[in-house]
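User: Reviewer 2 asked us to show a designed sequence for the structure in our supplementary figure. I'm pasting the structure tokens here. Could you produce the per-position amino acids so we can include them in the response letter?
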């Protein structure tokens, strides 16, 4: 591509501690983001002034006034709040050529640079999917790669997770859909969590890239996973309304039902059995992933990037 590289940015609705917010922002500034559109789900977050002072960040407090101006009242479900804010960011006067919606525990990892990858796309490509790699809990350096669709995909998953693989979509505890970059300037675009819609058309002009990974840090360790477990079970990625991998008559359970069953049968020990087989980097999973060619190693220097982009922080 001749001429300047495309500019890209991201939007995110965030409720998290200050250091996590700054780490997420700093990492993506360091990857070359031209704009970060951050919507603070906690309007009293102490991150507001720090973010607002950065020239490449646009930040909004999602307070009563904000929601009064965007639908009348604050939606109960955080997924709805995310989609409203992501669509708002997309509808702004364009400051970037591509925009992606992400969560605070997701980190883009490009092979070269994100701008170079986007620059190579033909002009008829409007949406670009990036697939996730799910972090193993423990050292923070090991990840399980996305398993592409193939005749042996479920066989691979059941070799990796002999006890629980029947219930794991793509072998992940979190999503396998990834997120999408959307070319800006398209009319009538509505952003959802994992997709973009133009009317009834999902992801117009879509392609997928394997040159950018979406590192999803779903759980740092056992205590962190357990601390988020109840919320996810009721409202998040383990909630009851999400579909199972296979129908109940064939033994299928979604994660909500699986976790409820484990707790009823074994209590917290049952949850620990699941964690050790599916999430932990200290219980044989890295070796099984390596044998299948699915172990990835990435080291995120979050502390260093915070110092670089927010030097006023102690």
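Assistant: Here is a per-position design you can include in the supplement:
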């Amino acid at each position: 591509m001749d001429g300047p590289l495309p500019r890209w940015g991201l939007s995110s609705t965030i409720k998290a501690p200050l250091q996590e917010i700054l780490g997420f922002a700093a990492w993506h500034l360091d990857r070359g983001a031209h704009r970060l559109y951050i919507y603070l789900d906690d309007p009293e977050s102490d991150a507001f002034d720090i973010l607002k002072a950065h020239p490449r960040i646009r930040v909004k407090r999602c307070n009563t006034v904000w929601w009064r101006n965007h639908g009348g009242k604050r939606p109960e479900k955080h997924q709805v709040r995310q989609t409203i804010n992501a669509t708002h960011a997309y509808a702004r006067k364009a400051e970037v050529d591509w925009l992606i919606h992400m969560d605070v525990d997701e980190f883009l990892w490009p092979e070269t640079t994100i701008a170079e990858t986007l620059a190579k796309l033909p002009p008829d490509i409007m949406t670009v999917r990036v697939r996730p790699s799910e972090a193993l809990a423990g050292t923070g350096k090991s990840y399980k790669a996305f398993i592409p669709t193939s005749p042996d995909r479920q066989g691979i998953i059941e070799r990796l997770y002999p006890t629980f693989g029947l219930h794991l979509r793509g072998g992940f505890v979190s999503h396998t859909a990834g997120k999408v970059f959307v070319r800006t300037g398209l009319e009538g675009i509505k952003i959802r969590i994992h997709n973009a819609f133009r009317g009834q058309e999902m992801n117009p002009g879509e392609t997928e890239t394997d040159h950018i990974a979406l590192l999803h840090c779903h759980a740092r360790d056992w205590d962190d996973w357990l601390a988020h477990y109840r919320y996810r079970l009721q409202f998040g990625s383990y909630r009851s309304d999400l579909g199972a991998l296979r129908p109940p008559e064939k033994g299928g359970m979604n994660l909500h039902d699986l976790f409820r069953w484990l707790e009823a049968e074994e209590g917290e020990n049952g949850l620990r059995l699941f964690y050790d087989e599916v999430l932990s980097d200290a219980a044989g999973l890295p070796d099984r992933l390596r044998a299948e060619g699915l172990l990835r190693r990435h080291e995120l220097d979050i502390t260093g990037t915070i110092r670089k982009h927010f030097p006023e922080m102690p």
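For the response letter, you might also mention the following. DSSP finds eleven helices and 13 strands in the chain. The first strand starts at residue 8 and ends at 14.
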